[in-house]
Specification:
mainly alpha, 2 domains, 6 helices, rod-shaped
Length: 128
């Protein structure tokens, strides 16, 4: 977020909760904590805080909002990983992954002898 975007949001907070509640030192602390956030996120959070807060929102309220944002991001990432893993397992089971993965799969199932496995591992080591 740009400094001007942050300043606009601070002006919104000042107009709702009073100029005296956001002295320069407090604004600096908020900027240090929030400057790496997206401007759209900041706008959304300030709008929510103006609508829901009885008292001037301070650093802990912004940190709580950040924690919620991170949790949502992690949940989204976990869902994407689960979909990717599901697709990989589907490909694995269908045999679409080719000979290397088929050999590993067969080894897990006990269908590849120790001698064949050693040869396979040797080939893979030479490739990389």
């Amino acid at each position: 977020m740009l400094q001007t975007e942050f300043t606009h949001q601070v002006d919104r907070l000042k107009s709702s909760f009073g100029e005296k509640n956001y002295p320069a030192e407090r604004i600096k602390i908020l900027w240090d904590e929030l400057r790496h956030q997206d401007a759209a996120w900041m706008n959304k959070v300030v709008t929510r805080l103006i609508g829901e807060s009885r008292f001037p929102p301070l650093l802990p309220e912004f940190r709580d909002a950040l924690a919620i944002q991170r949790e949502r991001g992690w949940n989204t990432e976990k869902q994407q990983m689960a979909r990717s893993a599901s697709e990989a397992f589907r490909m694995w089971e269908s045999g679409e992954c080719g000979m290397p993965s088929q050999t590993i799969r067969n080894r897990v199932l006990g269908l590849v002898s120790d001698e064949d496995w050693a040869a396979f591992v040797s080939v893979v080591k030479n490739i990389s």
